Protein backbone atom coordinates (compact mmCIF):
# COMPACT_ATOMS: atom_id res chain seq x y z
CA UNK A 1 0.00 0.00 0.00
CA UNK A 2 1.37 3.41 -0.95
CA UNK A 3 0.21 6.34 1.12
CA UNK A 4 -1.91 6.33 4.22
CA UNK A 5 -1.56 7.40 7.83
CA UNK A 6 0.72 5.55 10.22
CA UNK A 7 0.19 5.90 13.94
CA UNK A 8 3.38 5.17 15.88
CA UNK A 9 3.50 4.39 19.60
CA UNK A 10 6.92 4.46 21.24
CA UNK A 11 7.73 2.94 24.61
CA UNK A 12 10.63 3.64 26.98
CA UNK A 13 13.53 1.73 25.42
CA UNK A 14 16.74 2.82 23.74
CA UNK A 15 15.59 2.50 20.11
CA UNK A 16 12.84 5.08 20.75
CA UNK A 17 15.53 7.73 20.26
CA UNK A 18 15.74 6.63 16.61
CA UNK A 19 12.00 6.69 15.78
CA UNK A 20 12.70 9.41 13.21
CA UNK A 21 14.10 6.60 11.02
CA UNK A 22 10.61 5.07 10.87
CA UNK A 23 8.99 8.44 10.24
CA UNK A 24 11.39 9.17 7.37
CA UNK A 25 10.87 5.73 5.84
CA UNK A 26 7.10 6.22 5.94
CA UNK A 27 7.30 9.71 4.46
CA UNK A 28 9.42 8.42 1.58
CA UNK A 29 6.47 6.12 0.73
CA UNK A 30 3.94 9.01 0.87
CA UNK A 31 2.62 8.09 4.33
CA UNK A 32 1.80 10.66 6.98
CA UNK A 33 2.73 9.85 10.55
CA UNK A 34 2.02 10.85 14.12
CA UNK A 35 3.74 9.70 17.29
CA UNK A 36 2.25 8.87 20.66
CA UNK A 37 4.67 8.17 23.50
CA UNK A 38 4.21 6.39 26.79
CA UNK A 39 4.96 8.81 29.63
CA UNK A 40 8.35 7.19 30.29
CA UNK A 41 9.27 7.26 26.58
CA UNK A 42 9.27 11.07 26.54
CA UNK A 43 12.77 11.00 28.07
CA UNK A 44 14.04 8.91 25.12
CA UNK A 45 12.78 10.95 22.16
CA UNK A 46 13.45 14.33 20.54
CA UNK A 47 9.93 15.74 20.54
CA UNK A 48 10.82 18.84 18.52
CA UNK A 49 12.45 16.82 15.74
CA UNK A 50 9.50 14.44 15.61
CA UNK A 51 6.98 17.27 15.50
CA UNK A 52 8.92 19.01 12.71
CA UNK A 53 8.94 15.82 10.63
CA UNK A 54 5.34 14.75 11.24
CA UNK A 55 3.62 18.11 11.48
CA UNK A 56 1.77 16.81 14.54
CA UNK A 57 2.46 17.21 18.25
CA UNK A 58 3.75 14.16 20.11
CA UNK A 59 0.88 13.00 22.27
CA UNK A 60 1.39 11.39 25.67
CA UNK A 61 -1.66 12.57 27.57
CA UNK A 62 -5.38 12.81 27.00
CA UNK A 63 -6.81 16.00 25.47
CA UNK A 64 -6.59 18.94 27.81
CA UNK A 65 -10.30 19.76 27.60
CA UNK A 66 -13.29 17.45 27.17
CA UNK A 67 -14.59 19.20 24.03
CA UNK A 68 -11.24 19.44 22.24
CA UNK A 69 -11.28 18.14 18.66
CA UNK A 70 -9.20 15.21 17.53
CA UNK A 71 -6.60 16.51 15.09
CA UNK A 72 -5.09 13.32 13.64
CA UNK A 73 -6.20 11.51 10.49
CA UNK A 74 -7.68 8.03 10.76
CA UNK A 75 -4.95 5.41 11.16
CA UNK A 76 -4.36 3.01 8.27
CA UNK A 77 -1.72 1.16 10.30
CA UNK A 78 -0.23 1.14 13.80
CA UNK A 79 3.34 0.34 14.80
CA UNK A 80 4.27 -0.05 18.46
CA UNK A 81 8.05 0.13 18.56
CA UNK A 82 10.09 -0.28 20.54
CA UNK A 83 7.69 -2.24 22.69
CA UNK A 84 8.99 -3.01 26.16
CA UNK A 85 8.33 -6.17 28.17
CA UNK A 86 5.91 -4.19 30.31
CA UNK A 87 4.04 -2.69 27.36
CA UNK A 88 3.67 -5.99 25.49
CA UNK A 89 2.13 -7.54 28.60
CA UNK A 90 -0.16 -4.52 29.16
CA UNK A 91 -1.34 -4.52 25.54
CA UNK A 92 -2.24 -8.19 25.70
CA UNK A 93 -4.14 -7.80 28.96
CA UNK A 94 -5.94 -4.67 27.73
CA UNK A 95 -4.45 -2.49 30.45
CA UNK A 96 -5.03 1.10 29.36
CA UNK A 97 -3.42 3.03 32.19
CA UNK A 98 -2.04 5.85 30.04
CA UNK A 99 -2.94 7.59 26.79
CA UNK A 100 -0.58 5.48 24.65
CA UNK A 101 -1.96 2.17 25.95
CA UNK A 102 -5.54 3.41 25.53
CA UNK A 103 -4.74 4.37 21.93
CA UNK A 104 -3.23 0.94 21.26
CA UNK A 105 -6.18 -0.89 22.83
CA UNK A 106 -8.68 1.07 20.77
CA UNK A 107 -6.85 0.77 17.45
CA UNK A 108 -6.39 -2.98 17.87
CA UNK A 109 -10.07 -3.23 18.80
CA UNK A 110 -10.93 -1.36 15.61
CA UNK A 111 -8.81 -3.89 13.69
CA UNK A 112 -6.34 -1.33 12.43
CA UNK A 113 -3.43 -3.34 10.99
CA UNK A 114 -0.92 -3.48 13.85
CA UNK A 115 2.77 -4.37 14.14
CA UNK A 116 4.56 -4.74 17.48
CA UNK A 117 8.37 -4.83 17.66
CA UNK A 118 9.52 -5.87 21.13
CA UNK A 119 12.87 -4.70 22.47
CA UNK A 120 13.48 -7.15 25.30
CA UNK A 121 16.36 -9.16 26.64
CA UNK A 122 16.41 -12.94 26.45
CA UNK A 123 15.74 -13.39 30.18
CA UNK A 124 12.52 -11.36 29.98
CA UNK A 125 11.51 -13.01 26.68
CA UNK A 126 11.91 -16.44 28.30
CA UNK A 127 9.25 -15.64 30.91
CA UNK A 128 5.94 -17.44 30.48
CA UNK A 129 3.86 -14.23 30.79
CA UNK A 130 5.74 -12.65 27.88
CA UNK A 131 5.53 -15.79 25.73
CA UNK A 132 1.78 -15.99 26.37
CA UNK A 133 1.42 -12.29 25.56
CA UNK A 134 3.15 -12.69 22.20
CA UNK A 135 1.04 -15.74 21.36
CA UNK A 136 -2.17 -13.95 22.38
CA UNK A 137 -1.34 -10.89 20.28
CA UNK A 138 -0.62 -13.08 17.27
CA UNK A 139 -3.94 -14.88 17.82
CA UNK A 140 -5.60 -11.45 17.71
CA UNK A 141 -4.03 -10.84 14.26
CA UNK A 142 -1.37 -8.47 15.57
CA UNK A 143 1.94 -8.93 13.75
CA UNK A 144 4.68 -9.35 16.36
CA UNK A 145 8.15 -9.10 14.84
CA UNK A 146 10.11 -11.43 17.06
CA UNK A 147 11.97 -14.65 16.43
CA UNK A 148 14.19 -16.35 13.90
CA UNK A 149 11.70 -16.01 11.05
CA UNK A 150 11.57 -12.24 11.58
CA UNK A 151 15.32 -11.82 11.98
CA UNK A 152 14.80 -10.03 15.28
CA UNK A 153 15.71 -11.90 18.45
CA UNK A 154 15.79 -10.88 22.09
CA UNK A 155 19.25 -9.66 23.10
CA UNK A 156 21.40 -11.01 25.94
CA UNK A 157 20.79 -9.20 29.24
CA UNK A 158 22.93 -6.08 29.49
CA UNK A 159 23.51 -5.77 25.74
CA UNK A 160 20.59 -3.55 24.74
CA UNK A 161 22.76 -0.56 23.90
CA UNK A 162 24.70 -2.55 21.33
CA UNK A 163 21.45 -3.77 19.70
CA UNK A 164 19.79 -0.38 19.44
CA UNK A 165 21.27 0.55 16.05
CA UNK A 166 20.07 -2.77 14.54
CA UNK A 167 16.44 -2.12 15.47
CA UNK A 168 14.26 -3.20 12.49
CA UNK A 169 12.45 0.06 11.70
CA UNK A 170 12.24 -0.62 7.94
CA UNK A 171 11.04 -4.18 8.50
CA UNK A 172 8.29 -2.91 10.81
CA UNK A 173 7.13 -0.42 8.18
CA UNK A 174 7.15 -3.06 5.44
CA UNK A 175 5.08 -5.39 7.64
CA UNK A 176 2.60 -2.61 8.46
CA UNK A 177 2.13 -1.61 4.82
CA UNK A 178 1.67 -5.25 3.84
CA UNK A 179 -1.03 -5.66 6.50
CA UNK A 180 -2.68 -2.37 5.50
CA UNK A 181 -2.81 -3.60 1.90
CA UNK A 182 -4.68 -6.71 3.03
CA UNK A 183 -7.52 -4.76 4.71
CA UNK A 184 -10.86 -5.35 2.99
CA UNK A 185 -11.94 -2.40 0.84
CA UNK A 186 -15.27 -1.85 2.60
CA UNK A 187 -13.90 -1.64 6.12
CA UNK A 188 -15.29 1.37 7.97
CA UNK A 189 -14.09 0.76 11.52
CA UNK A 190 -10.84 2.76 11.27
CA UNK A 191 -10.00 5.24 13.99
UniProtKB/TrEMBL annotation:
Q: Which InterPro entries does the UniProt entry name for this protein?
A: Flavin_trans-like, Flavoprotein
Q: Gene3D superfamilies, from UniProt?
A: Flavin prenyltransferase-like
Q: Where does this protein have coiled-coil stretches?
A: none
Q: Which domain of life is it from?
A: Bacteria
Q: Cite the Flavoprotein domain residue spans from the record.
A: 5-137
Any single Pfam family the record assigns to this protein: Flavoprotein
* Protein name in the entry: Flavoprotein
> Which source organism?
Micromonospora thermarum
Amino acid sequence: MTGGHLQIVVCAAGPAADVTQLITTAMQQSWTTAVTATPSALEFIDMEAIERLTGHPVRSTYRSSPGARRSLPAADALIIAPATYNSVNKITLGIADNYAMTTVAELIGRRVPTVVVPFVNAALAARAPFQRAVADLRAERVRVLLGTDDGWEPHPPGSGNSRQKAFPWATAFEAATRLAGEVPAGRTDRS
